Amino acid sequence: MGWGDVCIYLLYLLLQMGWGDLGILGQPEKETPNLDKMAAEGMLLLDFYTANPLCSPSRAALLTGRLPIRNGFYTTNDHARNGYTPQEIVGGIPDSEVLVSELLSQAGYRNKIIGKWHLGHRPQYLPLRHGFHEWFGAPNCHFGPYDNKATPNIPVYNGSEMVGRYYEDFAISRASGESNLTQLYVSEALDFIDRQAAAGRPFFLYWAPDATHGPLYASRGFLGTSRRGLYGDVVRELDDGVGRILARLRARGLDTNTLVFFTSDNGAAMVSRTQGGSNGPFLCGKQTTFEGGMREPAIAWWPSRIQPGQISHQLSTVMDLFTTALELAGAVPPSDRVYDGTSLLPTLLNGTEVDRPVFYYRGDELMAVRYGLYKAHFWTWTNGQDERSKGIDFCRGEDIPGVTTMQQVNYTDSPLLFHLGRDPGERYSIKPKSSEYKQAMRKLEEVVASHRAGLLPGEPQFNMCDSAVMNWAPPGCEKLGRCLKGPESKPYKCPWPH
Ligand SMILES: *[C@@H]1O[C@H](CO)[C@@H](O)[C@H](O)[C@H]1NC(C)=O
Ligand SMILES: *[C@@H]1O[C@H](CO)[C@@H](O)[C@H](O)[C@H]1NC(C)=O
Ligand SMILES: *[C@@H]1O[C@H](CO)[C@@H](O)[C@H](O)[C@H]1NC(C)=O
Ligand SMILES: *[C@@H]1O[C@H](CO)[C@@H](O)[C@H](O)[C@H]1NC(C)=O
Protein backbone atom coordinates (compact mmCIF):
# COMPACT_ATOMS: atom_id res chain seq x y z
CA MET A 1 0.00 0.00 0.00
CA GLY A 2 2.97 2.32 0.46
CA TRP A 3 1.75 3.77 3.74
CA GLY A 4 5.24 3.44 5.14
CA ASP A 5 6.33 6.83 3.84
CA VAL A 6 3.61 8.80 5.61
CA CYS A 7 2.96 9.09 9.27
CA ILE A 8 -0.68 8.20 9.90
CA TYR A 9 -2.30 9.52 13.03
CA LEU A 10 -5.41 7.84 14.36
CA LEU A 11 -8.09 9.42 16.43
CA TYR A 12 -11.24 7.62 17.58
CA LEU A 13 -14.11 9.64 18.96
CA LEU A 14 -16.44 7.40 20.94
CA LEU A 15 -19.28 9.62 22.07
CA GLN A 16 -22.14 7.36 23.15
CA MET A 17 -24.77 9.02 21.00
CA GLY A 18 -27.79 7.57 19.26
CA TRP A 19 -28.12 7.23 15.48
CA GLY A 20 -30.71 9.96 15.35
CA ASP A 21 -28.77 12.51 17.40
CA LEU A 22 -26.90 14.10 14.50
CA GLY A 23 -28.39 16.99 12.55
CA ILE A 24 -27.12 15.40 9.34
CA LEU A 25 -29.19 12.29 10.12
CA GLY A 26 -32.32 14.29 10.69
CA GLN A 27 -32.20 15.46 14.29
CA PRO A 28 -34.47 18.47 13.78
CA GLU A 29 -32.83 20.90 16.20
CA LYS A 30 -29.55 20.82 14.23
CA GLU A 31 -27.42 21.05 17.34
CA THR A 32 -24.39 19.14 16.03
CA PRO A 33 -22.84 21.59 13.55
CA ASN A 34 -19.31 20.23 14.02
CA LEU A 35 -20.20 16.57 13.55
CA ASP A 36 -22.39 17.53 10.59
CA LYS A 37 -19.44 19.41 9.07
CA MET A 38 -17.14 16.47 9.80
CA ALA A 39 -19.55 14.24 7.86
CA ALA A 40 -19.80 16.74 5.01
CA GLU A 41 -16.00 16.83 4.79
CA GLY A 42 -15.68 13.05 4.99
CA MET A 43 -17.77 9.90 4.78
CA LEU A 44 -20.99 9.14 6.62
CA LEU A 45 -21.46 5.40 7.13
CA LEU A 46 -25.16 4.58 7.41
CA ASP A 47 -24.82 0.84 8.02
CA PHE A 48 -22.23 0.83 10.76
CA TYR A 49 -22.62 -1.39 13.84
CA THR A 50 -21.19 -1.84 17.25
CA ALA A 51 -20.35 -5.37 18.41
CA ASN A 52 -22.76 -5.51 21.35
CA PRO A 53 -25.71 -3.47 22.60
CA LEU A 54 -23.78 -2.51 25.74
CA CYS A 55 -20.67 -0.50 26.60
CA SER A 56 -17.85 -2.74 27.94
CA PRO A 57 -18.18 -5.55 25.37
CA SER A 58 -18.30 -3.02 22.50
CA ARG A 59 -15.17 -1.30 23.74
CA ALA A 60 -13.35 -4.60 24.12
CA ALA A 61 -14.37 -5.47 20.56
CA LEU A 62 -13.20 -2.08 19.27
CA LEU A 63 -9.76 -2.55 20.78
CA THR A 64 -9.28 -6.29 20.09
CA GLY A 65 -10.98 -6.52 16.68
CA ARG A 66 -12.86 -9.54 18.01
CA LEU A 67 -16.45 -10.26 19.02
CA PRO A 68 -17.09 -10.31 22.79
CA ILE A 69 -17.90 -14.03 22.57
CA ARG A 70 -14.29 -14.55 21.50
CA ASN A 71 -12.50 -12.02 23.75
CA GLY A 72 -14.39 -13.10 26.89
CA PHE A 73 -16.59 -10.02 27.44
CA TYR A 74 -19.79 -11.98 28.11
CA THR A 75 -21.41 -14.15 30.77
CA THR A 76 -22.62 -17.74 30.89
CA ASN A 77 -24.44 -17.26 34.22
CA ASP A 78 -27.72 -17.14 32.38
CA HIS A 79 -28.87 -17.33 28.77
CA ALA A 80 -28.47 -14.26 26.52
CA ARG A 81 -27.70 -11.71 29.26
CA ASN A 82 -25.91 -8.42 28.81
CA GLY A 83 -22.92 -7.99 31.09
CA TYR A 84 -20.43 -5.17 31.59
CA THR A 85 -17.79 -4.04 34.11
CA PRO A 86 -19.45 -2.52 37.19
CA GLN A 87 -17.26 -2.03 40.27
CA GLU A 88 -18.03 -5.52 41.58
CA ILE A 89 -16.73 -7.30 38.48
CA VAL A 90 -13.81 -9.64 39.06
CA GLY A 91 -12.87 -10.04 35.38
CA GLY A 92 -11.50 -7.73 32.72
CA ILE A 93 -9.53 -7.78 29.50
CA PRO A 94 -7.41 -10.94 29.54
CA ASP A 95 -3.65 -10.58 28.97
CA SER A 96 -4.01 -13.10 26.16
CA GLU A 97 -6.01 -10.56 24.13
CA VAL A 98 -3.86 -8.34 21.92
CA LEU A 99 -5.16 -4.80 21.74
CA VAL A 100 -4.73 -2.38 18.86
CA SER A 101 -2.89 -0.13 21.33
CA GLU A 102 -0.26 -2.83 21.94
CA LEU A 103 0.32 -3.39 18.23
CA LEU A 104 0.44 0.35 17.47
CA SER A 105 2.86 0.80 20.34
CA GLN A 106 5.17 -1.78 18.78
CA ALA A 107 4.85 0.16 15.52
CA GLY A 108 6.18 3.31 17.22
CA TYR A 109 2.89 5.01 18.06
CA ARG A 110 2.25 7.07 21.17
CA ASN A 111 -1.18 6.08 22.52
CA LYS A 112 -3.55 7.89 24.82
CA ILE A 113 -7.04 7.15 26.07
CA ILE A 114 -9.10 10.02 27.45
CA GLY A 115 -12.30 9.19 29.32
CA LYS A 116 -13.98 5.92 30.15
CA TRP A 117 -11.99 2.68 29.79
CA HIS A 118 -14.51 0.01 30.85
CA LEU A 119 -12.33 -3.03 30.19
CA GLY A 120 -11.93 -3.88 33.88
CA HIS A 121 -10.77 -1.73 36.82
CA ARG A 122 -8.47 -4.08 38.74
CA PRO A 123 -4.77 -3.13 38.30
CA GLN A 124 -3.94 -5.88 35.77
CA TYR A 125 -6.73 -4.69 33.46
CA LEU A 126 -5.94 -0.96 33.28
CA PRO A 127 -4.99 0.77 30.00
CA LEU A 128 -1.28 1.31 30.73
CA ARG A 129 -0.98 -2.47 31.08
CA HIS A 130 -2.52 -2.89 27.64
CA GLY A 131 -0.54 -0.74 25.25
CA PHE A 132 -1.59 2.79 26.19
CA HIS A 133 1.13 5.20 27.27
CA GLU A 134 -1.19 7.81 28.72
CA TRP A 135 -4.63 7.87 30.26
CA PHE A 136 -6.76 10.57 31.73
CA GLY A 137 -10.16 9.34 32.81
CA ALA A 138 -11.91 6.63 34.76
CA PRO A 139 -12.21 2.86 34.64
CA ASN A 140 -16.01 2.79 35.13
CA CYS A 141 -19.05 4.97 34.44
CA HIS A 142 -19.44 8.16 36.47
CA PHE A 143 -22.31 6.80 38.56
CA GLY A 144 -22.58 8.25 42.03
CA PRO A 145 -22.06 9.99 44.34
CA TYR A 146 -21.46 7.12 46.73
CA ASP A 147 -20.80 7.11 50.47
CA ASN A 148 -17.36 5.42 50.29
CA LYS A 149 -18.71 2.86 52.81
CA ALA A 150 -20.97 0.47 50.89
CA THR A 151 -19.58 1.69 47.56
CA PRO A 152 -16.50 3.79 46.78
CA ASN A 153 -16.64 6.73 44.40
CA ILE A 154 -15.08 6.03 41.01
CA PRO A 155 -11.40 7.01 40.80
CA VAL A 156 -10.04 9.31 38.11
CA TYR A 157 -6.64 8.28 36.77
CA ASN A 158 -3.79 10.23 35.26
CA GLY A 159 -1.54 7.55 33.79
CA SER A 160 -1.20 4.52 36.04
CA GLU A 161 -2.29 6.22 39.27
CA MET A 162 -5.47 7.76 40.60
CA VAL A 163 -5.51 11.53 41.04
CA GLY A 164 -8.87 11.80 42.80
CA ARG A 165 -12.44 10.57 42.61
CA TYR A 166 -15.59 11.64 40.79
CA TYR A 167 -17.87 13.86 42.87
CA GLU A 168 -15.10 14.51 45.42
CA ASP A 169 -12.20 15.95 43.39
CA PHE A 170 -13.93 16.07 40.00
CA ALA A 171 -17.26 17.70 40.66
CA ILE A 172 -20.48 16.59 39.00
CA SER A 173 -23.51 18.35 40.41
CA ARG A 174 -26.52 16.06 40.40
CA ALA A 175 -28.69 19.06 41.26
CA SER A 176 -27.73 21.41 38.41
CA GLY A 177 -26.08 18.89 36.04
CA GLU A 178 -22.94 21.02 36.01
CA SER A 179 -19.50 19.50 35.56
CA ASN A 180 -16.32 20.62 33.84
CA LEU A 181 -15.26 17.09 32.92
CA THR A 182 -15.90 17.34 29.18
CA GLN A 183 -13.87 20.56 29.10
CA LEU A 184 -11.06 18.77 30.91
CA TYR A 185 -11.24 15.90 28.41
CA VAL A 186 -11.09 18.36 25.50
CA SER A 187 -8.01 20.11 26.93
CA GLU A 188 -6.33 16.76 27.50
CA ALA A 189 -6.88 15.94 23.82
CA LEU A 190 -5.59 19.29 22.57
CA ASP A 191 -2.52 19.05 24.81
CA PHE A 192 -1.79 15.52 23.57
CA ILE A 193 -2.10 16.57 19.92
CA ASP A 194 0.21 19.55 20.52
CA ARG A 195 2.85 17.38 22.19
CA GLN A 196 2.79 14.71 19.48
CA ALA A 197 2.90 17.36 16.75
CA ALA A 198 5.95 18.92 18.40
CA ALA A 199 7.63 15.52 18.74
CA GLY A 200 6.70 14.54 15.16
CA ARG A 201 5.56 11.18 16.47
CA PRO A 202 2.69 9.06 15.12
CA PHE A 203 -0.11 8.82 17.63
CA PHE A 204 -3.34 7.03 18.46
CA LEU A 205 -5.81 9.01 20.51
CA TYR A 206 -8.92 7.28 21.81
CA TRP A 207 -11.23 10.08 22.99
CA ALA A 208 -14.02 8.47 24.99
CA PRO A 209 -15.80 11.07 27.13
CA ASP A 210 -19.01 9.72 28.68
CA ALA A 211 -21.11 12.81 29.31
CA THR A 212 -24.05 11.51 27.24
CA HIS A 213 -24.24 8.56 29.64
CA GLY A 214 -26.37 9.21 32.72
CA PRO A 215 -26.06 10.99 35.07
CA LEU A 216 -25.88 13.71 32.43
CA TYR A 217 -23.62 16.72 32.89
CA ALA A 218 -22.43 19.76 30.94
CA SER A 219 -20.33 22.79 31.80
CA ARG A 220 -21.84 26.19 32.58
CA GLY A 221 -21.37 27.54 29.07
CA PHE A 222 -23.56 24.79 27.64
CA LEU A 223 -26.17 24.27 30.35
CA GLY A 224 -29.58 25.44 29.25
CA THR A 225 -28.49 26.19 25.68
CA SER A 226 -30.32 23.38 23.89
CA ARG A 227 -33.98 22.95 23.07
CA ARG A 228 -33.60 19.24 23.90
CA GLY A 229 -32.92 19.83 27.57
CA LEU A 230 -29.84 18.61 29.44
CA TYR A 231 -29.16 15.76 26.99
CA GLY A 232 -29.07 18.33 24.16
CA ASP A 233 -26.69 20.51 26.19
CA VAL A 234 -24.38 17.53 26.61
CA VAL A 235 -24.46 16.74 22.90
CA ARG A 236 -23.73 20.40 22.08
CA GLU A 237 -20.70 20.39 24.37
CA LEU A 238 -19.32 17.17 22.90
CA ASP A 239 -19.96 18.45 19.39
CA ASP A 240 -18.10 21.64 20.24
CA GLY A 241 -15.23 19.51 21.57
CA VAL A 242 -15.06 17.60 18.30
CA GLY A 243 -14.88 20.91 16.44
CA ARG A 244 -12.01 22.11 18.62
CA ILE A 245 -10.09 18.84 18.24
CA LEU A 246 -10.40 18.85 14.43
CA ALA A 247 -9.42 22.53 14.35
CA ARG A 248 -6.30 21.73 16.39
CA LEU A 249 -5.28 18.99 13.94
CA ARG A 250 -5.62 21.57 11.14
CA ALA A 251 -3.71 24.22 13.08
CA ARG A 252 -0.83 21.79 13.62
CA GLY A 253 -0.89 20.70 9.97
CA LEU A 254 -1.82 17.13 10.91
CA ASP A 255 -5.28 16.94 9.35
CA THR A 256 -4.22 15.41 6.04
CA ASN A 257 -2.29 12.70 7.88
CA THR A 258 -4.95 11.81 10.44
CA LEU A 259 -7.81 9.37 10.12
CA VAL A 260 -10.49 10.48 12.57
CA PHE A 261 -13.43 8.16 13.20
CA PHE A 262 -16.53 9.07 15.18
CA THR A 263 -19.01 6.50 16.46
CA SER A 264 -20.81 5.20 19.57
CA ASP A 265 -20.54 2.05 21.67
CA ASN A 266 -24.26 1.28 21.69
CA GLY A 267 -27.58 2.76 20.67
CA ALA A 268 -29.27 5.46 22.73
CA ALA A 269 -30.82 4.17 25.95
CA MET A 270 -34.60 4.27 25.58
CA VAL A 271 -34.84 3.51 29.27
CA SER A 272 -33.44 7.02 29.95
CA ARG A 273 -36.41 8.62 28.16
CA THR A 274 -35.82 12.37 27.70
CA GLN A 275 -32.41 12.03 29.43
CA GLY A 276 -31.14 9.95 26.51
CA GLY A 277 -30.65 10.18 22.77
CA SER A 278 -32.61 9.15 19.71
CA ASN A 279 -32.17 6.12 17.49
CA GLY A 280 -33.98 7.77 14.61
CA PRO A 281 -36.07 5.28 12.63
CA PHE A 282 -34.65 2.22 14.36
CA LEU A 283 -36.43 -0.13 16.76
CA CYS A 284 -35.72 -0.07 20.51
CA GLY A 285 -32.30 0.86 21.90
CA LYS A 286 -29.34 0.03 24.09
CA GLN A 287 -29.47 -3.49 25.62
CA THR A 288 -31.34 -4.96 22.64
CA THR A 289 -30.25 -6.54 19.37
CA PHE A 290 -32.79 -4.60 17.35
CA GLU A 291 -31.32 -1.94 15.06
CA GLY A 292 -31.75 0.77 17.69
CA GLY A 293 -29.44 -1.12 20.02
CA MET A 294 -26.55 -1.70 17.67
CA ARG A 295 -26.66 0.50 14.57
CA GLU A 296 -24.54 3.57 15.27
CA PRO A 297 -23.88 6.96 13.80
CA ALA A 298 -20.44 6.81 12.15
CA ILE A 299 -18.24 9.32 10.38
CA ALA A 300 -14.78 8.87 8.86
CA TRP A 301 -12.72 12.02 8.28
CA TRP A 302 -9.37 12.28 6.58
CA PRO A 303 -9.01 15.40 4.43
CA SER A 304 -7.23 14.79 1.10
CA ARG A 305 -7.63 10.99 1.36
CA ILE A 306 -11.34 10.50 2.01
CA GLN A 307 -13.29 12.47 -0.57
CA PRO A 308 -15.77 14.86 1.04
CA GLY A 309 -19.54 14.47 1.01
CA GLN A 310 -19.70 10.71 0.66
CA ILE A 311 -22.30 8.35 2.04
CA SER A 312 -21.56 4.64 2.28
CA HIS A 313 -23.85 1.69 2.86
CA GLN A 314 -20.95 -0.67 3.46
CA LEU A 315 -21.88 -3.04 6.31
CA SER A 316 -19.18 -2.31 8.84
CA THR A 317 -18.45 -2.60 12.55
CA VAL A 318 -16.28 -1.17 15.32
CA MET A 319 -14.04 -4.21 14.91
CA ASP A 320 -13.10 -2.98 11.43
CA LEU A 321 -11.32 -0.04 13.06
CA PHE A 322 -8.81 -2.50 14.54
CA THR A 323 -7.93 -3.95 11.15
CA THR A 324 -7.98 -0.56 9.43
CA ALA A 325 -5.66 1.01 11.99
CA LEU A 326 -3.17 -1.83 11.75
CA GLU A 327 -3.14 -1.67 7.98
CA LEU A 328 -2.41 2.06 8.11
CA ALA A 329 0.35 1.59 10.68
CA GLY A 330 1.86 -1.36 8.82
CA ALA A 331 1.40 -3.57 11.88
CA VAL A 332 0.49 -7.24 11.68
CA PRO A 333 -1.69 -8.88 14.36
CA PRO A 334 -0.85 -12.38 15.66
CA SER A 335 -2.10 -15.07 13.27
CA ASP A 336 -3.09 -17.54 16.01
CA ARG A 337 -6.65 -16.24 16.41
CA VAL A 338 -9.74 -15.17 14.51
CA TYR A 339 -10.51 -11.46 13.97
CA ASP A 340 -13.94 -10.16 13.14
CA GLY A 341 -12.87 -6.92 11.49
CA THR A 342 -11.95 -6.21 7.90
CA SER A 343 -10.08 -3.19 6.62
CA LEU A 344 -12.34 -0.30 5.70
CA LEU A 345 -9.69 1.34 3.51
CA PRO A 346 -11.24 0.19 0.20
CA THR A 347 -14.53 1.77 1.35
CA LEU A 348 -13.04 4.92 2.84
CA LEU A 349 -10.58 5.63 0.04
CA ASN A 350 -12.30 4.14 -3.01
CA GLY A 351 -15.98 3.99 -2.08
CA THR A 352 -15.98 0.20 -2.53
CA GLU A 353 -18.90 -1.76 -1.04
CA VAL A 354 -18.72 -5.53 -0.53
CA ASP A 355 -21.17 -8.04 0.95
CA ARG A 356 -20.38 -9.35 4.40
CA PRO A 357 -22.33 -10.37 7.50
CA VAL A 358 -22.91 -8.60 10.82
CA PHE A 359 -23.57 -10.73 13.91
CA TYR A 360 -25.74 -9.52 16.79
CA TYR A 361 -24.89 -11.10 20.13
CA ARG A 362 -26.52 -10.67 23.52
CA GLY A 363 -24.28 -12.34 26.10
CA ASP A 364 -23.58 -15.90 24.99
CA GLU A 365 -26.30 -16.03 22.31
CA LEU A 366 -26.22 -15.16 18.63
CA MET A 367 -29.55 -13.33 18.52
CA ALA A 368 -29.54 -12.19 14.88
CA VAL A 369 -27.53 -11.86 11.70
CA ARG A 370 -27.55 -9.35 8.87
CA TYR A 371 -26.31 -9.95 5.34
CA GLY A 372 -27.06 -7.45 2.58
CA LEU A 373 -30.38 -5.88 3.46
CA TYR A 374 -31.79 -8.95 5.18
CA LYS A 375 -31.73 -9.44 8.92
CA ALA A 376 -32.85 -12.65 10.61
CA HIS A 377 -33.60 -12.92 14.31
CA PHE A 378 -32.97 -16.32 15.89
CA TRP A 379 -33.99 -14.97 19.27
CA THR A 380 -36.00 -11.93 20.35
CA TRP A 381 -36.10 -10.26 23.75
CA THR A 382 -36.55 -6.76 25.08
CA ASN A 383 -36.57 -7.21 28.83
CA GLY A 384 -38.69 -9.14 31.30
CA GLN A 385 -42.04 -8.33 32.85
CA ASP A 386 -40.49 -8.07 36.33
CA GLU A 387 -38.31 -5.18 35.13
CA ARG A 388 -41.09 -3.66 33.05
CA SER A 389 -43.17 -3.36 36.21
CA LYS A 390 -40.33 -1.28 37.72
CA GLY A 391 -40.40 1.06 34.73
CA ILE A 392 -37.39 -0.41 32.95
CA ASP A 393 -38.23 -0.56 29.25
CA PHE A 394 -35.62 -0.89 26.53
CA CYS A 395 -38.22 -0.32 23.81
CA ARG A 396 -39.98 2.81 25.03
CA GLY A 397 -43.46 1.39 24.55
CA GLU A 398 -42.82 0.35 20.95
CA ASP A 399 -44.84 -2.82 20.98
CA ILE A 400 -44.59 -5.03 17.91
CA PRO A 401 -46.32 -8.34 18.62
CA GLY A 402 -44.00 -11.30 18.23
CA VAL A 403 -40.97 -9.01 17.73
CA THR A 404 -40.46 -6.90 20.85
CA THR A 405 -41.10 -9.89 23.11
CA MET A 406 -40.91 -9.66 26.88
CA GLN A 407 -39.82 -13.30 27.05
CA GLN A 408 -36.83 -14.78 25.30
CA VAL A 409 -38.40 -16.36 22.22
CA ASN A 410 -36.47 -19.00 20.30
CA TYR A 411 -37.08 -18.45 16.57
CA THR A 412 -34.20 -20.67 15.50
CA ASP A 413 -36.50 -23.07 13.61
CA SER A 414 -38.19 -20.27 11.70
CA PRO A 415 -36.25 -17.02 12.09
CA LEU A 416 -38.01 -13.67 11.95
CA LEU A 417 -36.78 -12.10 8.72
CA PHE A 418 -36.82 -8.38 7.88
CA HIS A 419 -35.74 -6.43 4.82
CA LEU A 420 -34.00 -3.40 6.33
CA GLY A 421 -34.23 -1.44 3.09
CA ARG A 422 -38.03 -1.53 2.89
CA ASP A 423 -38.48 -1.85 6.63
CA PRO A 424 -35.63 -0.28 8.62
CA GLY A 425 -37.77 -0.30 11.77
CA GLU A 426 -38.14 -4.13 11.80
CA ARG A 427 -41.93 -3.98 11.87
CA TYR A 428 -43.08 -6.29 9.08
CA SER A 429 -41.54 -9.76 9.05
CA ILE A 430 -41.38 -11.59 5.74
CA LYS A 431 -43.70 -14.61 5.44
CA PRO A 432 -41.79 -17.89 5.86
CA LYS A 433 -43.69 -19.45 2.94
CA SER A 434 -42.58 -16.78 0.46
CA SER A 435 -39.82 -17.47 -2.04
CA GLU A 436 -38.09 -14.28 -0.89
CA TYR A 437 -37.87 -15.75 2.62
CA LYS A 438 -36.49 -19.07 1.42
CA GLN A 439 -33.92 -17.48 -0.82
CA ALA A 440 -32.72 -14.96 1.77
CA MET A 441 -32.63 -17.51 4.60
CA ARG A 442 -30.53 -19.91 2.55
CA LYS A 443 -27.74 -17.33 2.38
CA LEU A 444 -28.13 -16.23 6.02
CA GLU A 445 -28.03 -19.83 7.30
CA GLU A 446 -24.89 -20.43 5.25
CA VAL A 447 -23.20 -17.36 6.72
CA VAL A 448 -24.17 -18.42 10.26
CA ALA A 449 -23.02 -22.02 9.77
CA SER A 450 -19.60 -20.81 8.71
CA HIS A 451 -19.45 -18.36 11.64
CA ARG A 452 -20.36 -21.09 14.14
CA ALA A 453 -17.86 -23.52 12.64
CA GLY A 454 -14.96 -21.18 13.39
CA LEU A 455 -16.18 -20.06 16.81
CA LEU A 456 -14.03 -20.67 19.85
CA PRO A 457 -15.66 -18.84 22.80
CA GLY A 458 -13.24 -17.10 25.17
CA GLU A 459 -13.17 -17.58 28.93
CA PRO A 460 -16.22 -15.60 30.18
CA GLN A 461 -15.12 -12.53 32.19
CA PHE A 462 -18.52 -11.48 33.55
CA ASN A 463 -19.44 -14.50 35.66
CA MET A 464 -17.96 -13.57 39.02
CA CYS A 465 -18.53 -10.52 41.21
CA ASP A 466 -17.08 -9.56 44.60
CA SER A 467 -17.53 -6.36 46.66
CA ALA A 468 -13.90 -6.67 47.75
CA VAL A 469 -12.65 -5.85 44.23
CA MET A 470 -14.40 -2.46 44.02
CA ASN A 471 -12.31 0.72 43.64
CA TRP A 472 -11.41 0.88 47.37
CA ALA A 473 -7.67 1.27 47.03
CA PRO A 474 -6.69 1.99 43.42
CA PRO A 475 -2.98 2.38 42.55
CA GLY A 476 -1.79 5.79 43.74
CA CYS A 477 -4.25 6.05 46.64
CA GLU A 478 -1.46 5.73 49.27
CA LYS A 479 0.32 8.85 47.97
CA LEU A 480 -2.90 10.81 48.25
CA GLY A 481 -3.87 9.27 51.58
CA ARG A 482 -7.14 8.28 49.90
CA CYS A 483 -7.23 4.48 50.25
CA LEU A 484 -10.50 3.06 51.55
CA LYS A 485 -10.98 -0.19 53.39
CA GLY A 486 -13.12 -2.69 51.55
CA PRO A 487 -14.98 -5.73 52.83
CA GLU A 488 -13.68 -9.31 53.02
CA SER A 489 -13.65 -11.17 49.72
CA LYS A 490 -16.94 -12.96 49.07
CA PRO A 491 -17.13 -13.98 45.44
CA TYR A 492 -20.57 -14.64 44.00
CA LYS A 493 -22.13 -15.24 40.61
CA CYS A 494 -23.02 -11.85 39.12
CA PRO A 495 -26.76 -11.46 38.57
CA TRP A 496 -27.44 -10.05 35.11
CA PRO A 497 -31.13 -9.16 34.97
CA HIS A 498 -31.34 -8.50 31.24
C1 LIG B 1 -1.02 14.18 34.57
O1 LIG B 1 0.31 13.73 34.63
C2 LIG B 1 1.20 14.45 33.78
C3 LIG B 1 2.52 13.73 33.76
O2 LIG B 1 2.95 13.46 35.05
C4 LIG B 1 1.26 15.88 34.28
O3 LIG B 1 2.13 16.62 33.47
C5 LIG B 1 -0.14 16.47 34.22
O4 LIG B 1 -0.15 17.76 34.76
C6 LIG B 1 -1.12 15.63 35.00
N1 LIG B 1 -2.46 16.12 34.73
C7 LIG B 1 -3.42 16.20 35.65
C8 LIG B 1 -4.71 16.81 35.22
O5 LIG B 1 -3.27 15.79 36.78
C1 LIG C 1 -16.23 24.74 36.47
O1 LIG C 1 -15.25 25.74 36.23
C2 LIG C 1 -15.70 27.04 36.52
C3 LIG C 1 -14.64 28.02 36.05
O2 LIG C 1 -13.38 27.67 36.55
C4 LIG C 1 -15.99 27.16 37.99
O3 LIG C 1 -16.47 28.45 38.30
C5 LIG C 1 -17.09 26.13 38.34
O4 LIG C 1 -17.33 26.13 39.73
C6 LIG C 1 -16.66 24.74 37.91
N1 LIG C 1 -17.80 23.86 38.10
C7 LIG C 1 -17.71 22.69 38.73
C8 LIG C 1 -19.00 21.92 38.86
O5 LIG C 1 -16.67 22.25 39.14
C1 LIG D 1 -8.19 2.02 -4.76
O1 LIG D 1 -8.27 1.83 -6.15
C2 LIG D 1 -7.02 1.92 -6.80
C3 LIG D 1 -7.27 1.89 -8.30
O2 LIG D 1 -8.08 0.79 -8.63
C4 LIG D 1 -6.13 0.79 -6.33
O3 LIG D 1 -4.87 0.87 -6.93
C5 LIG D 1 -5.96 0.91 -4.83
O4 LIG D 1 -5.23 -0.20 -4.33
C6 LIG D 1 -7.31 0.95 -4.14
N1 LIG D 1 -7.10 1.24 -2.75
C7 LIG D 1 -7.71 0.58 -1.78
C8 LIG D 1 -7.37 0.95 -0.39
O5 LIG D 1 -8.53 -0.28 -1.99
C1 LIG E 1 -33.73 -23.14 20.23
O1 LIG E 1 -34.32 -23.85 19.17
C2 LIG E 1 -33.42 -24.72 18.48
C3 LIG E 1 -34.16 -25.32 17.29
O2 LIG E 1 -35.32 -25.96 17.71
C4 LIG E 1 -32.91 -25.78 19.42
O3 LIG E 1 -31.98 -26.61 18.75
C5 LIG E 1 -32.21 -25.10 20.60
O4 LIG E 1 -31.82 -26.06 21.55
C6 LIG E 1 -33.15 -24.09 21.26
N1 LIG E 1 -32.37 -23.38 22.25
C7 LIG E 1 -32.72 -23.27 23.51
C8 LIG E 1 -31.75 -22.61 24.43
O5 LIG E 1 -33.79 -23.67 23.93
From TrEMBL:
Every copy of the Sulfatase N-terminal domain together lies at 17-331
- Subcellular localization, as worded in the UniProt entry: Lysosome
Question: Subunit details for this protein?
Answer: Homodimer.
User: What Pfam families does the entry give?
Assistant: Sulfatase (PF00884), Sulfatase_C (PF14707)
State one molecular function term (GO).
N-acetylgalactosamine-6-sulfatase activity
Does the record carry Hydrolase as a key word?
A: yes
Q: What is this protein called?
A: N-acetylgalactosamine-6-sulfatase
Cofactor names from the entry are: Ca(2+)
The transmembrane residues are none
Q: What stretch or stretches form a coiled coil here?
A: none
Q: Which domain of life is it from?
A: Eukaryota
Instruction: Tell me, in one coarse class, where this protein mainly resides.
Output: other
Which GO CC annotations does the UniProt entry carry? lysosome
